[in-house]
Amino acid sequence: MEQLSMMPARIRIASVLRKAIYAGEYKSGDELSLTDVAAQLGISRTPVREAFQELEAEGLITLRMNRGAVVNTIDRKFIRDTFEMRRLLESEAVARAAGNGMETEQLLNRLYDLRDHITQVSKETYEALNQDIHTAIWKAADNRRLEKCLLDMWNGPSVAGSAEEVLEHYRNSTFEHISILQFIRDGMAEEARRAMELHITRSMTNMLQCYPEEGK
Length: 216
Fold this sequence. Notes:
Layout: H1 9-22, E1 31-32, H2 34-41, H3 45-58, E2 61-63, E3 69-71, H4 76-99, H5 105-116, H6 123-140, H7 144-153, H8 163-185, H9 189-208
Antiparallel strand pairs: 1-3, 2-3
Helix pairs in contact: 1-3, 2-3, 4-6, 4-7, 4-8, 4-9, 5-6, 5-8, 8-9
């Protein structure tokens, strides 16, 4: 399970656990201990408990009285439904960000540097920039309810697999982020919307690879 980056504790923990469940690191029936998760992430039990409550509301886990939680069965439809909702919300957020004149220069400069050194980039550097891009777009959409919904769905980069597959995801995602931010910079709301839709769709496809189709 990956380590935490800088986000509010409840959101950080929920996002890390959410991604681990999506990627199959935790499987149906696995037990999650408040104490063990808190120790692994180096954080107190209280925000872990809050994250567990959020994940239960999403249908990812079932809480057990004084016994932590158990992971629910997650299938292809669950993943598809989740990412389709993200696609709807993030495409609207990015269109609003473009219409609101979001500042993109600093993020684009970081992306250009990442693009030029993609084979040397660390996981931490990529994930920090990925998070900064998405959260900046949500904020620029200027709708607190929309921002909160997207924050509550965050799972970080939607990739699993070999080192080569992860690097390829980093490369594709970097070019997609550049395209999205350039459309925002130029005030091209519908183009930004379509670029975000493609970006989230590819993320969904990546995650679905962890879930074989029935009969296979």
